[in-house]
Amino acid sequence: MNSQRLIKLLFISFTALTVGCHQTDQPKFKADISKVDLQPIKIKRYDKAFFSVAPSHFKEELIALAPSYPLFLKINLNDTSIVNDLRRFAIDTSIRKLSADVEKKYADISPLENNLTTAFKRSAFFFKGLKAPQIYTFISGLDYLYPIRYDGDNMAISIDLYLGKDYLQYRKVQLPNYKIKNMTSERLLPDCMTEVAKLILSNAKPGNTLLDKMIYEGKVLVFLDAVIPETPDSIKIGYTSNQLIWSSKNASNIWKYFIENRLLYSSNPELTKKFIDDSPFTTSFGRESAPRFGAWTGWQIVREFMNKNSSVTLEQLFKMTDSQTILEKSGYKPEE
Hints:
The protein is mainly alpha-helical. It has 18 helices and 4 strands. The longest helix is centred in the middle third of the chain and has 18 residues, at 210-227.
C-alpha cells in the first residue's frame, strides 16, 4: 500500500466512519495505597519566593533564600555576574507578568499536591522503594522544551508553561500551536508522572527499532494508566478528542501500513521522529491525523499485553527488554 493510497483511505475512514473503532481497554491496576508510607506532598513555591525578593536588597535576600531552595540557589551568590543575571531576570517586565499570572492562576496549589500524593503512593505501590521527590515550582521564562525536570530526588515544574491554551503570551512569543494546546493545568499531573516513568525505565533502555520505541512509549503511557487511572486518555497522551477518535478509527489501516512497509524493525531515526516525537500531526497520514501515532499504537499493544498476561506486574513489564515478545504475547491486531 503506497502512502497516497493510505492517506486516501484514512480520510475516507475519518469522514465516513467506515473503519471499525479500536481502542484497547485500560488494564485494571489495583493498588492498596492505605499502607504506603509516604508523606503528603508539599510543593515549594520557588516562583513566589524568587519574585518576592526586593531588587534593592537582591543579593542579601537571595542568600537568605538559598538554604530553602538549594536546587536553584546552590550557586556562587558572591559572583557579581551571576547575581546581576538573576536580577535582570527578576525585574524583566515580561517575566514579572508571567509570575503575576501564575500567582493568580495557582494561588491555591493544594489540588495538585493532593493528586501528586496519590499518584506517588500508587507509584510506590507498584515499584517498591520508590520515594516521592521534593517538588518545586519555578518560572522558566517559557522554556517549553523542558516543562518538568526530575532526577528522583527533586522535581522542578515550569509552572509558567501551564497557564492554559488560550494564554495570549504563548502566541505573542510564537510558541508552536501543537505545544500550546497541551499547556494546561490538566496536563500538569500526567507530565509529572511521565517523567517518573522515564526515569524508572532509564535502567532498561529500549533498542533502536521503531517497535522498541513504540513499546517504550507504550510502557510510559500504561504507567499513567496505573498511577493516574481517572485521567482521560486524551489528556494522558496529549490528544484532542478528534485526534483520539482518529487514532481509534484508523488503527487497522495504519497497522497494515507498518507491516506491509516493514517499518517495525527499521532502525531509521527518521521513523522515530515521524511516529514517536511530538508534532502537529503524523506527516505520512495528512494534516487531520493524530501525532505520535507510534506511541499511541505502542500504548494499545502494551495494554493488550497486560490484559492478556495478568500475572505480569508493572515492575516486571518495565524490566522486559524484548519488544518482540511483548508484541507476540499481546496478540495485537486491530479490527477493521
